[in-house]
């Protein structure tokens, strides 16, 4: 089964580093600079993984996660953030993502969920 990892991350350094790491682990990746770019692309399919930065310019990452959950697909959704815990709680707006990882990301923490 063909699985793609979609990375929605506005920091080009973080997006490129994540993409490179995941490609070295044998995954196909697509990086999007913001939610709007992600929405313009073909949506993910069953089995795909989507990594979403919670603090995106324009549309917030939590809104992307809500949309993904509304698709009723079998997706792995990983929220990431480098913000302080209090800011993350505000961004989540009372919701809980399936997986939340804090930046800086460690390879073993990320690969544990793939």
Automatic annotation (TrEMBL):
Sites bearing 4-aspartylphosphate, chain numbering: 53
Pfam families assigned to the protein according to its UniProt record, in alphabetical order: Response_reg
Parts of the chain that traverse the membrane: none
PROSITE patterns in alphabetical order: RESPONSE_REGULATORY
Residue ranges of domain Response regulatory in the record: 4-114
UniProt superkingdom: Bacteria
Xref: InterPro entries: Bact_response_regulator, CheY-like_superfamily, Sig_transdc_resp-reg_receiver
Keywords: Phosphoprotein
SUPFAM superfamilies: CheY-like
UniProt-listed GO biological process terms: phosphorelay signal transduction system
Record carries keyword Hydrolase: no
SMART domains: REC
Family annotation (Gene3D superfamilies): 3.40.50.2300
Listed name of the protein: Response regulator
Protein source organism: Stappia albiluteola
């Amino acid at each position: 089964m063909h699985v793609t990892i979609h990375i929605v991350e506005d920091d080009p350094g973080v997006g490129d580093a994540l993409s490179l790491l995941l490609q070295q682990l044998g995954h196909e990746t697509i990086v999007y600079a913001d939610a709007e770019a992600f929405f313009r692309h073909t949506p993910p399919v069953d089995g795909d993984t989507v990594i979403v930065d919670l603090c995106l310019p324009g549309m917030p990452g939590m809104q992307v996660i809500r949309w993904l959950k509304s698709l009723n697909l079998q997706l792995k959704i990983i929220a990431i953030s480098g913000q302080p815990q209090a800011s993350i709680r505000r961004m989540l707006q009372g919701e809980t993502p399936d997986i939340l990882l804090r930046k800086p990301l460690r390879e073993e923490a990320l690969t544990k969920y793939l």
